[in-house]
Amino acid sequence: MKADIRKSGIDIIGDISWGTHICQFYQTKEDLTDILVPYFKEGLENNEFCLWVTSQPLEVEDAIEALKRVVPYLNANLEKGQIEIISYTDWFLTEGAFDPERVLNGWVEKLTYASYHTMVTMV
Predict the structure, then answer these.
(1) What pTM, to 2 d.p., does this model score?
(2) What is the rounded CA–CA span in Å between residue 56 and residue 58?
(3) Model confidence over 22-37: pLDDT tens digits?
């Protein structure tokens, strides 16, 4: 079976097989956005469902502002649910504690939603 190839949006990486995992080490918020913003931009341009779970040093507002600089239609994508940008505290923690079952159910829910609406890009 031939793997589906998609654009990563990351020049140095180029095209990747669907399901590829990428690990990035970074020192600053800018290092992180330099990789993630083009990745999510590409996903949005290809009508993929995108879920960005942010963590320090990058807050939700920072991610939205960084994406708005390169995705002029970001508000429309957010409104129609094509992209969700969520803090790790809202995604992974319930009342300050990690609940693995809730998190797993959340991933399954998003994957189910995406499979009925668009393709999937998650970080």
Answers:
(1) 0.84
(2) 5
(3) 888 889 999 999 999 9
Give the model confidence (pLDDT) of 43-64 as tens digits. Answer: 999 988 999 999 989 999 999 9
C-alpha 2/C-alpha 63 separation (Å) is: 34
What are the C-alpha distances in Å from 121 to residues 42, 77, 81, 95, 102? 9, 14, 13, 27, 20
Confidence label for 122 from pLDDT (cuts 50, 70 and 90): low
- Print the domain residue range for 109: 28-122
Q: Is residue 2 part of a domain?
A: no
Q: Can you tell me the distance from the alpha carbon of 50 to that of 26, in angstroms, rounded to the nearest whole number? A: 21
Neighbours of 44 (CB within 10 A): 23
Structural domains in the chain (count): 1
